[in-house]
Amino acid sequence: AAGSNTEILSISDPANLASVLTDGVKKTIFDSRVQVTYEPGFVPVAPPAMPDIPPEHLAEMIKGTVKVEVLDGNIGYLKIQHIIGEEMAQKVGPILLEYIWDKMLPTSAMILDFRSAVSGELSGIPYIVSYYTDPEPLIHIDSVYDRTSDVTIELWSMPTLLGKRYGTSKPLIILTSKNTLGIAEDVAYCLKNLKRATIVGENTAGGSIKINKIKVGDTDFYVSVPVAKSINPITGKTWEINGVAPDVEVAAEDALDAAIAIIKLRAEIL
Predict the structure, then answer these.
(1) pTM (global) more than 0.70
(2) Among 261, 263, 269, which residue's Cα sits nearest to residue 108?
(3) What is one GO biological process annotated to this record (predicted)?
(4) pLDDT tens for each residue of the chain, 270 residues long
(5) Domain limits of the chain?
């Protein structure tokens, strides 16, 4: 369509052209995740090799993306910006247990703050979900279809974990915003449909479980394309594109206060 549209081809500014092409793609395929960008200096970021970083340094990096606090009423508050994968969790496990989990376990209710969570690893999904479920029976949490390999990976709860589980009886609330993206959306959707967590906040971004950036020929233009799809075994649907709808809808900045009020109200009723 762009090739036959002389008006588009006459746009001289590459960034402006990328923006126009993105709008055209979105109107054609109705998928807001597909984007055309102009990035002359783009260098793909390779994840650091695990053995090259000492566990102490990894732990410091993780601490920079996590906030841990015990609020009034013995409510655990855990703010996460990046969901680490199983491999990294195993490597820095003892430090994570001491810094985070040992503070959370004795609490009587917990709030997971995903309002700023925009990145993560696929293997982190069963890791987090398993801490709020029973060891047996194992639960089919999610199925992820990878288009590039034409393979579907099933994610299941884990029978053994580092440290103790939070369990299934204590209240769990997940805070979301319109910026909550990707892996965090998957975790929220899984725990919501397992009836294990209450989602409080805004409808999430509706991102993708995995996006690849593909170079367009011999140019500095790139197309960001979803290359995998999450399909929840309970709903048979995905959270992608439409996002995760909250159980209690409030503005993101009011979500924490709303969550605390819900936990206190439940405690009074019980």
Answers:
(1) yes
(2) 263
(3) proteolysis
(4) 555 666 776 788 888 888 888 888 877 877 778 888 888 888 776 655 555 677 777 777 777 778 999 999 999 999 999 898 888 888 887 888 888 899 999 999 999 999 999 989 999 999 999 999 999 999 999 999 998 899 999 999 999 998 899 999 999 999 999 999 999 999 999 999 999 999 999 999 999 998 888 888 888 889 988 899 999 999 999 999 999 999 999 999 999 999 999 999 988 887
(5) 52-210+226-268
